[in-house]
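User: My collaborator sent over this chain with a note saying "see what the structure looks like." That's all I know about it. Can you take a look?
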Amino acid sequence: MLAKDYLKEYAAPVGIFILSRLCIFLIIALVSMYGMGRGANISQWDAKNYISIAEQGYQFDGTYRGQSAYIAYFPLLPALMSGVSASTGVQASTAGIMVSALFGILSVILLYRLIANTKGRQAGLIAVSMFSFYPASVFLSSSYTESLFAFLVLTTFLCIQKKQFRWAIVPVALACITRPTGAILGIVYLYSLYKDKYPLYKIAFYGFLAGIPFYCFLFFQYLQYGTAFAFMKAQSVFWNQHLVPVWEGMFLFYKDVFTSTWAVPMRYQDGLICTLVIFLLVYAWKHTPRHIWYFGLGVVLLTLSSDKILGMGRYMMLVFPIYYALAHLGEKYKHLYPYMLVVSAMWCALITVIFSIKELVF
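Assistant: Without extra context I'll predict from the sequence alone. Here is the result:
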């Protein structure tokens, strides 16, 4: 395919994503301009912690408090931020936005290609628009792992779709040092090898290769923190988060939604987003390749396997079967699609405002 053919093919999905980013940055600029928040900006919440790791590395004083708890954040994103900062001279905060912008654009290209290959161009564009204007898509432009992880997951899915299983080892391996959900991608990858009738020794070997970066991360934690699972201990000590059975986590999550007096606006939105995603995941069963559907299910179950969840909206953004479901609904009920997009975009605007003025809201 010639360069002009690529431009013609991908101009629309990339344009949709860029438009969504311009809207988000315009909202943040207006919020800051009219004094609605002190220091309204795109680098809030966990983004500041990733910036700290990129600038100073992992630090441990034996307490798992403050910066000593940042081992809970996996290393690939801050490593990329640090590399971009060192090579360009920009601050780590700017480097994080640059990294997220790059992988955000690549992610929409891959999402479009993945769905268009089997469902057609129109379905691919609907999926990209719903992903770009997803309610919590502001996280795709901040120093968070969402854009990077989406790129790695979608790269894996495309490799599986084309039966390029050897190449898939690379994105799976990198996903496992991007965020804990990478383990779900690893399981789905092994499942795909099994379904393609790979011999067990090859499945085990490919799985071992895909896990090497994560094993190195565990070894680093053992040397630096005295335990290979310091990231889990940090979650427990500093954030008071623990793994629980899914049903218990779901009960506690919805209980928090209706009874918590802290971060109320985000709690209500998290509850609504989680509910909608679960319904869309069920609907997507008939319209999504099995390995992608199982990945989505795994993300939901792993997220709900915690006794304390805040930020459900951004976790659910990477349940990719919902975009198959939304693409199918948008094609089947063409009159419904514009309303879906407008509601999602307005919701995205609201969450962007809340995100950028967290000091006032929380």
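A starting point for your reply to your collaborator: Residues 3-33 form the longest helix (31 residues).
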